[in-house]
Amino acid sequence: MFRKEPNTDVAWCALYSRLQNENLLNEEPVQIKQRKRIIPVYWAAACIIALLGTTIFFLYNSDKKSADLLTLQNTENENILVKTLEDGSTVYLTSNASVSYPKSFSGNKREISLKGEALFDVAKNPSKPFLIETEKVTVKVLGTAFKVKSSAEGDFELVVQRGRVRVTEKVNGNSIVVTAGQSVSFIDNHLFKYSNKDSNIFNRYTSKMRFKDETLQNIVHVINQNNDSFVVLKGDLLKASRLNVQFYKNNVNEMTQIISMALNLKREIRQDTIFISQP
Hints:
It is a single chain. By secondary structure, the protein is α+β, with helices and mostly antiparallel strands. It has two domains: about 10-35 and about 205-275, Phage tail protein beta-alpha-beta fold (3-Layer(bab) Sandwich), CATH 3.55.50; about 40-195, Jelly Rolls (Sandwich), CATH 2.60.120. Helix content is about 15%, strand content about 45%. The protein contains four helices and 19 strands. It has helices at about 10-20, 215-225, 235-240, 250-265, and strands at about 45-50, 55-60, 70-75, 80-85, 90-95, 95-100, 110-115, 115-125, 130-135, 135-150, 155-170, 175-180, 180-185, 190-195, 210-215, 230-235, 240-250, 265-270, 275. The strands form two sheets. The chain has a 16-stranded mixed beta sheet that branches. It is elongated.
């Protein structure tokens, strides 16, 4: 399989120096015109942010009940660790957050557990719902984007950006459906729903993204998803190549240049699409 060990820091420094020498740093970034695309139904996204009660690594949980689970942890202070799961759902882990999940989702549901704060972009699959276990409640994704805060002490808050979410209390089984523009909190062992119109709560999760040993295909998918762009990788070997890379408030042009320079790839722009291929 195609595999390289790139130095993305060198690539970024080279790009920055070139932009500085050409007096381009203060200019408006080149905009890639958004293409009107038909998004398949199974990719209707759901985003979640959850806060629960820790170098970045994978490990197998030795507990008998979760012997087949992988745990991904992020103990960095600044960066958001981004990981794409087997079903195509993307996880954005903040500092001190961890998520446990199976290598492959089997059965009739996709179930994970979370500690800390994270944003999820869930691939929609009506026949296999996505469930997130927190300390006091279970969150069922019904095709939506939402923010969750939860702690080991039982504090819980959820804000829906679009679509709807079902939140169920673990103790008594009471559940509530929350829709776009609404929030729900768990106070004194009860769920309370109220209005919330903050539309900027998700922005900080994509401003400092770090990918650890992630496939180039998954990295480009996240870039396209968060920037309304259309970046295309040409070649299956290229898609399967893995990369360690970090982006800090970079636009699409800068991110694709960093990737291309780090892996010594060819990059060209045709109308509203950026193509990346082997030279």
